[in-house]
Amino acid sequence: MTSWPARARTGAPAAGRASDRLPVSVIVPVKDEEASIVPLLESLAAQVAAPDEVLVVDGGSRDDTVRLVRARARIDPHVSLIVADGPAGPGQGRNLGARAARNAWIAFTDAGTTAEPTWLQRLWNAHVLNPDARVVYGNYEFDVRSGFEASAVVSYGKAKRATPRGPCRAPSVVSVLLHRAAFEEVGGFTDARSGEDEIFTRAISSRGIPTDWAPTATVWWRPRPDLRSTFQRFRSYSFHYALAGEQRHWHRRLARSYVPVAAGSILTLRSRGWSAVPVGVLLARALVRVHRHSADLGRPRPGPGLVIAVAGLTAVTDAATFLGWAEATRHQRWPAKGTGPARG
Questions:
Q1: Residues 87-129: pLDDT tens digits?
Q2: Distance CA 322, CA 331 (A)
Q3: What order of strands is seen across the sheet that includes strand 22-30?
Q4: What is the pTM of this model?
Q5: Domains located in the chain, CATH noted
């Protein structure tokens, strides 16, 4: 089983004193998050410097999410629920929350995460140290609880990148503080049901909005726990990403990486010796991913079992990606034949 650094567990949450609260509105878009919303809200209540308000925007939950948020709001006056008029994706949810926020500074995170007690304070400290920055990107780590999840995040999780403040998994809207003016300058989030976060961060960069980083401002993100849910999530993301017209940033790059695999598979029909080409390409990609996550994996050095597991998972997620892309293409050409997979 692949080892992964254990996350630090925090104690019982305690509501911050009014004098400790920062002039920040934390916005969380949700849909069918009954399993994850309470731990997230508890972690936000346990902040060393708690936010002035937490706005949870529900985009059409069919489970117990709304009831759980309302129950939390009854015991914590700093938590509010906004229910969208009809189904709303995460981008729409963030836009609704930003419009309702009473503070100039806004922080975004997602359901399925929990925030370290110092998360918001460290984002705010970065802003104080660099008041010209209109956007401060924090960090996120993987809350891995099984060997499958460890292999999965190596397969598809982002590795840390170098920033002027240190290694950080940024830019990402799962851990970010920004001024309302920056949000409005880029026009908020698009209506896409996936990929809207990358479109947003690219817009921040292309506009030249002053940005800083806070690598120690961390939230913990849970990966999908099994192969079936991972496949469905990638299929759904791919479908909606393609509908948003963002194929050049994901699908086409992926397709180009499979040219050697396709060529080797065709040549295998002539000689079985060529069968090593597609297998070799997948293993080489897996080795690159393992190397990129070497800092996450720690010691001892990962063995061949991890490389094989990552190669297999990569093949599965790539298949889901191609399937979602094909479904989106079919939907765009023949809309009456269906709308494709729902977002998982």
A1: 888 999 999 999 999 999 999 999 999 999 999 999 999 999 9
A2: 14
A3: 79-83, 51-58, 22-30, 105-108, 176-179, 135-142, 211-221, 113-115
A4: 0.85
A5: 18-221 (3.90.550.10), 227-337 (no CATH)
